[in-house]
Amino acid sequence: MVFEFNLSIEELEKRTHKDYLIKRTMLDTDAEEYNNLANGDKEALKHLVKAANYANVIYMKQDNELNLPFKSFLEEEISKGNKQAELTKILFDAQLGIIGIDSESKKVILLKDVPYLEGKGFYPSDITKEELHNILKTMLKNGEKEEVQKILNQRSIVKRNDNKLKAFDYTEEFKEEFESIAKELEEAAKISTNKDFNEYLILQAKALRENDPMLDAYADKKWATLQDTPLEFTISREQYADMLSGSAIEDEELKQLLEENDITPMSKDSIGIRVGIVNKKGTEDLLKVKNYLPLMAENMPLKDRYEQNISSDEDNLQTMVDADIVSLRGDEGSYRGGITIAQNLPNNDKLSLTIGGGRRNVYHRQVRTSNSPEAKERRQKRLDATLNKELHKFYNPEADHWFTIGHENVHSLGPKSGTEALGKYKNIIEENKADMGALALLDCLTNADIYSEEEKNQILVTFGVNCFLKAKPELSQAHRVRTVMQAYFYISEGAISVNKEGIIDINIEKMVSTANKMLTEIIDVQLSQDFNKGEQFINDYFHWTDDIDRVSKKLKEIDKTLNGKIETPLADYLCKC
Fold first, then answer.
1. Any bridge partners for residue 322, and if so which?
2. What is the DSSP letter of 268?
3. Which residues pair with 157 in a beta bridge?
4. Contacts of 69 (CB under 8 A, 6+ apart)
């Protein structure tokens, strides 16, 4: 297959230059964290990083059917000395695909004449939203309920079947890759030193081999109990990429047919794998917050109108670990405008939560803000250019981690079901909830001596600075859209202001109450289970104003970064052993 490059040599040289391509380096080969492991865990780690590499193949298949052929094309051209192919491959490996997005929310398309697909590789590349809706309506009217359920569930790849569609479960579609992962997990379980961790690996291996969602639930339930393990291994399944499945509720006739057949459209899971070493000191710090989760639940707005996972009269089923990252692969490792710094899983749509399973928060130490001289210089330039100098004393990069801890915990609070009805806006609204909850609950956590008054102010100011982006995002970028919405809301409420020179000022006294106001509105939207109400909420606050744009222009002037990539020296070394 012959392909045509989309980016010129000049553009590729720019985007791969060190000033434009940021690096996030995971654990190195001489890492103390690795050297301190027991021999059995060191050997197990070799199998886990090998298992993780298969996630790249799965993710690329899920993302676009042309990814793997294009990758082979690039490798062949590189062997011939093609400089354009060599530079293109750097970006392809960073974003794990032919189409990504940069820090200025521009699409980075490496292959010419390739359209952006709302259904990614989960659906036929030539299907439109309207055609999907029409096919599903016809199938439901013909009594094909079971097949439509498979098409609209989290774990399938959908293909054409004459004038209909047919769904293939992940265990069937990715049989070879899943089998390879399962074998590596079983080998790791033979030598890892922790019994609970080994039990989880065996459950996860079994789930990869059989088309039975309940096996995933058993593995997830066990994974969510892991607290005192030396190693960290996660197969993540998140739903940010698929923008097509959730659109089924936008067609009124189809929505009614789905309701009559008791079918809830679920966005499809993108597969990622994380491998790490649990950091005991960092984990101890995280666990200090755990005892206060019931207090946080009691202080959530509208708490009497819904059931949530955390309550004051029972043990909360949530574990937390800080992990030194060895490998991020698949959805975890695709650098598309950014990369995940922490996760709270399983998500509400997962079966494990219906059989008594809990949640687990994992934080990525190596992805958090770097303290290198270059990073410190970039942060100072940002502060000098955009923040009122009187507030500089409150800016603290570590406060962003404290905020993230709140964010991830709030994912476990609020309504625990029904948000699928919000369709393509579900993720934006949920991420908004987690952010606003992290701020709205600061007063009660400060009163409980989790944070000092100064630390609370540092969280608020650091959040306020981070509310501004380099460019307006697209709706598919849930995390970034919610940031713009928050900046607009805070400015509208007078908690944040921007002067004519693009300098941000923050009214610390109004920050928590403003968060609580937005959080209350968010939860009301989630409880409504009304797509139109969710859409109205987005339309009300997703505005790129002149104030926001003034800061954006300054950020572009002081930060040239467009793309990013992760480097995993220890994982690369272990894969060769």
1. 363
2. P
3. 168
4. 1, 3
User: What are the pLDDT tens digits along the chain (577 aa)?
Assistant: 679 999 999 999 999 999 999 999 999 999 999 999 999 999 999 999 999 999 999 999 999 999 999 999 999 999 999 999 999 999 999 999 999 999 999 999 999 999 999 999 999 999 999 999 999 999 999 999 999 999 999 999 999 999 999 999 999 999 999 999 999 999 999 999 999 999 999 999 999 999 999 999 999 999 999 999 999 999 999 999 999 999 999 999 999 999 999 999 999 999 999 999 999 999 999 998 888 999 999 999 999 998 876 755 455 689 999 999 999 999 999 999 889 999 999 998 999 999 999 999 999 999 986 777 777 888 999 999 999 999 999 999 999 999 999 999 999 999 877 788 999 999 999 999 999 999 999 999 999 999 999 999 999 999 999 999 999 999 889 999 999 999 999 999 999 999 999 999 999 999 999 999 999 999 999 999 999 999 999 999 999 999 999 999 999 999 999 999 999 999 999 999 8
Name residues whose C-beta falls within 8 Å of residue 76's C-beta, 6 or more positions apart in sequence. Answer: none
Looking only at the bridges linking them, the beta strands covering 496-498 and 504-506 are antiparallel
Q: Looking up tokens 């009497």, which residue turns up?
A: 304
The backbone torsions φ and ψ at residue 338, rounded to the nearest 5 degrees and listed phi first, read: 170, -175
Please choose, from the candidates 99, 30, 512, the residue with its C-alpha nearest in 3D space to the C-alpha of residue 337: 99
Q: What is the value of pTM for the model shown?
A: 0.94
Between CA 431 and CA 410 the distance in angstroms is 10
Q: Give the span between the Cα atoms of 202 and 195, in whole angstroms.
A: 11
The one-letter code for the residue type at 300 is: M
The whole-angstrom separation of Cα 450 and Cα 187 is: 42
- The pair of three-digit structure tokens given for residue 155, joined into one six-digit string: 């774990």
Helix axes 39-63, 175-191, angle to 10 degrees: 170
For 19, residues 6+ apart whose C-beta sits below 8 A from its C-beta are: 560, 561
